[in-house]
Structures are given as C-alpha cells and as structure tokens.
Amino acid sequence: MGRRKKEMVEAGLCGKGLHQWVEGQGCCLDCKREANHRWWAANAEKNREIGRLWREANPEKVREHSRRWAKANPEKVREHSRRWFAANPEKSREANRRWFAANPEKFREYAARRRVRLEGNGVYVVSDKDMRRLQQQPCAHSHLSPCDGDMHLDHVIPVSRGGTHGIGNLQILCQRHNISKHDRLEAEARRRAVSRAA
Predict the structure, then answer these.
(1) Which terminus, N or C, of the chain has the lesser number of Cβ atoms within 10 Å?
(2) Looking at the 3D structure of the chain, how many domains does it have?
(3) Pairing of strands 151-155, 170-174
(4) Residue 93: count of CB within 10 angstroms of its CB
C-alpha cells in the first residue's frame, strides 16, 4: 500500500473524498456501492435469468415471501389490484367468469350476501366450514314433495321481508322448492304446499 493511500486509510478516507472506509475490503463503502451498482447494471439480463431460475426452483419460498409481503402491505396490494383491474377489464371479467363457473356454491353465497347488503338487512360472517356443512344437508322441504334439480341457498326469512344473511337464516332447498317458496315465510310455504297437495 502506498504512503498516500496508507495515510488516507489511517484517516478513514479514500481517494474520492470523505467516504467511510470498509476494513479489509480495500475500498470505501460508497465506492463499493457504486461498483456493485455498475456491475448489476452491466449484468441485468444475466441477473434476471438467475432470479427466474431461483424462483422456479423455490416456488414455496416465493409464495411465502409474497404472502408475508401482502400481509405487511395491504394498501399497496389493494392499489395494485385496483390499477390492474382498471387496466385489464376484459381479463378481469374472464377471470371472474372462470372462478364463478368453478365455484358455483361460493358464487351463490356471494350473490345472496350482496343482495342482503343492498337491502341493508345485515350481513354476518358465514365460515367456509359452516357453508360446507349446510351444503351437505338435504333439501329442507323434501318431506313436503319430491325434490328436483340443483340445490340452492335460501334465506328462511326472505331478504325482501327483512331477512339477514347469517348461518341462522340459511337453509338448503332444491331448485323446485326454492322457486315455489319465492318470498314466503316457512309457515306460508308449508301451508301452500299442503293445500296444493290436497
């Protein structure tokens, strides 16, 4: 090491000015940062390829990092989603259509919840576990007449008559019984079914 450089090292300086010297590195901290920045800029394509290969080899680590980041930055996630949906309306509509087709029960529950919210009757959290248990039950009116068609989510007290959306006000009806119940209360629907059978 030359006399000038030795004096600068002892003074904690490097040749570029009042920079912080890195012990054992042969350069100062700012010079090292600049060198790193130049190297990354010169090898950008190579670094992108290395990053892509690492992400492909470690998908679980990438997902975990993304989950942690999203949890720590909910506002940024919402803003990014809002901008993406605004810039890609057709893609977002197509993604929604695919999701609704793959999840008909969740779509029905979502539609029912939205209807109640628009009426202002009160929407309560219905867990996935409660929803699965409810969907495994038979039609609530199967004893009145034979069932027909798909199973539908129904509000015991209809939304149009002040019914809320919560596990205590939900039941499963087949398509036929759900259509015939319409916006009647349970007692009214049963009386109508009995009178029609007579």
Answers:
(1) C
(2) 2
(3) antiparallel
(4) 11
